[in-house]
TrEMBL record:
This is Uncharacterized protein. It comes from Monosiga brevicollis. One of its GO terms (molecular function) is vitamin transmembrane transporter activity. InterPro entries: Folate_carrier, MFS_trans_sf. It comes from the Eukaryota. GO terms for cellular component: plasma membrane. The chain crosses the membrane at residues 7-27, 53-71, 78-97, 103-126, 138-159, 171-192, 256-280, 292-312, 324-344, 350-376, 388-412, 432-452. Belongs to the reduced folate carrier (RFC) transporter (TC 2.A.48) family. The keyword Lyase does not apply. Keywords: Membrane, Transmembrane, Transmembrane helix.
Amino acid sequence: MASVGPAYRRLSWLTIAIVALQFFHWFNPSEGYFYDFAARRFHVTGLELSDDIFAYDVAFQLAGGLLQAILFHLVSGYLALSIASAAAASAAAIVLFCHAKTWLLLSQAAWGLSFTVLYVAPALIINHEDPDNHAPALAANSAAMLSASLSASLIGFILTMTEHDSASSATFIAALVSASASALLCLPVFWAQRQGRIHAAHVAAHHLNAPTRHPYRDTIDDSFSKEPLLLEISEVPEGPDTYRTACMRLMRQRRFWFWLLSYCVARGAHTLCITLWSVLSADVDDREHVQRFNGLVLFLGYAAAALLVLAWGSLRRSDDHLALRAWLGLLIIMSLSLSTLALLHSYPAFAILFVVYNCSAELLLVVVLVQLAALVVKATDLHVRRDVLNVILFARFTISLTLQSLFQLGLFPKWGRLDNILGLDLPVRTQFVALGVLVAILSACVGLIRLINHLRHGWRWTL
């Protein structure tokens, strides 16, 4: 493994600016105080927050994602990034300075819109960065979000130990200042993007003057050259390459769907685990002085994951074979960790295993995203890549949210005003086991594919 320094020193100023923006965007120490603060300020109960406010979270994110995808395509991805940053600041400001319940719902809508930075920022990074720098760039992007979460968790833990009455207000003020800083960081992002136009023009000129090659044929020499093609060349529409034909080319590749659906299933399961882990923690040991350490456990989980992600991004070469090995190993760790967490009754063992789980899940998401980026780059021309990235990463965002909603409807006893669609009333430990089984099924499917490939082509790490 190479040292971290050289891989990250090659990143462009635009990527560095977006990574800094991501840190401030996700720095939100108020998250653990929202229930208590909102209940006092807006005179609502926990049940009202759950049924009338939080229940619309996914719908707001889906609507915000659609709006951002349209703006990304018709205007600019940088405008979409600015809107997401401004929405985060607006959400914190509404909670701090407004009092009506309607405003609380509006703050949730703004927060949902701010979540679209999850796909807008990686799309801009992949489109701008040299393909050789995608792994460190995307790793740095993920590490920035993890660093924001670990910093917020540490601050929340310290405030919990002090038990000061103004702690919750202070965390919302900190969230507002941080979100405002992320919005201001859009200015250097715009500057770096403008400076990069000259470089992009030179690259485009080089591509126009180079011998014409079909984008998909370019992938034959460097991607599973010993394997039969997943898509016959005759199936690819001929003529000028547009973002529609490029998307069709990607969607006809089995490998593309493998990585896309892997990401979406893992993201949906991981989001639910992060949502439920504090509930499971209370079931393991509900003593107040023990529960105060939840913030510290989150800090350690995010810190370890950030370091692991940065180490992966510093690898000199992360090819498909290495990524597939890492993917399968991390899935197995995720599955075993989720199922074992539900069986533990010791808080120290629970905390250690949660850190292991979080590391495997966060690294898995980065590994898969790098592979998706490589597929998009190999299958598209430069002049259509931005629009293809918008479509593909918006699809990733939407499918992940949809699967998360289905998991919630199938596992939670109640979600908002909706009852469990299967009529189940599962305790939290059973919900964790179910998530572990879901990830295990995904791992088993890959094992089956590997066995079939072994019987047909010999023992090679391919899809």
